[in-house]
Amino acid sequence: LGSDDENRAATKALEIYSHVVQRGWEAARQRFAREITVAIFWGLSPVACTYTTMFTLVRGLIPGRRPRRKPVVPCQTVAVIEAEEEVKNALVFWIDRQPGFRCIRTFTNVNDALHSLQRVAPAMVLINRNLADLAGGQRLDTLKSLRPNLPLFSFGVYEESDWIFHSITGVSAGYYLRRRPPLDWFDPIVEAARESNFTPQNLARHIRKYFQGLFEVSRPADDAQEMANLTRREREILVCLSKGYTDKEIADALKISVWTVHGHVKNVFDKLGVHSRTEAVVKYLQK
User: Fold this and answer.
1) 266: helix, strand or coil
2) Are residues 130 and 270 in the same domain?
3) Cα(107)–Cα(85) distance, integer angstroms
């Protein structure tokens, strides 16, 4: 709500609520910035993604100047396919701040992108996975056939980071989800940006090396000890979280209050050294 002061925050919340009631969610979304979590899926089997938290950028409030940084040569160009204007603005803002990357085109749907990218293609395309799953998915296959060497990755936009895990189903090969600050969002492919061989095959090698490196520096014995430190009830809570249960559903299943569930979830976070339910579930599944 843009303020640590309770009265100012309450006034802002009331203003947003009134706007939604009077003019609808679409109008409110265009006027007020909101916090979102955006996850880029670098791989799908196993699932490998980096996710970050940012604010949408509404028209008239988009910063114009970029921070100074050491230039990276060559600079890889990016196109984004995203339907919501405010999310698109935020994506462009942060992509332009990834070392070695610059967003040059944005599209509202796959159809518009297809017509443009047939003529001139960027180095990489990012597409909202909800758009890829629509009927236009056939056109997405057309784009892949026209540009087989064009790296194309999907991303998801979520109101909370916990929803990332719940949006992925039917994966048996594992999950590798890592939270990053907005400026480090492209970590898995930053090194590849410095190379002239910016192809799907070379990117896959860098992505695999990046996520494997996370496990090389981890300490499995410590992870096992963290799990062992959980109480029986906390492990039951963790199992329910892995099944996608809400706090109310966990409370009903275990016959405890929702407030008790909240307390157990907080203890799980503290003992596992995580900051979200998604991170806790991923750590549990990799135990």
Assistant:
1) helix
2) no
3) 10
pLDDT at 13 over 70: no
Tell me which amino acid residue 239 is: V
Assessment of whether the complete model's pTM goes beyond 0.85: no
The CATH number of the domain where 186 resides is what? 3.40.50.2300
SS3 category, 84: coil
280 and 139 assigned to the same domain:
no
Q: What are the distances in angstroms from CA 164 to CA 191, 205, 208, 232?
A: 26, 24, 20, 26
| Residue closest to 58 by CA, chosen among 14, 81, 28 | 28
Report which residue type is found at 65. R
Scan for tokens 């996520």, then name that residue.
211
Comparing 35-39, 131-135, 176-180, which segment has the lowest mean pLDDT? Answer: 131-135
The tens digit of pLDDT for each residue in 256-284 reads 998 999 999 999 988 888 888 878 887 77
Q: Where are the strands (E) in the chain, listed by range?
A: 35-44, 47-55, 76-81, 101-107, 124-128, 152-158, 175-179
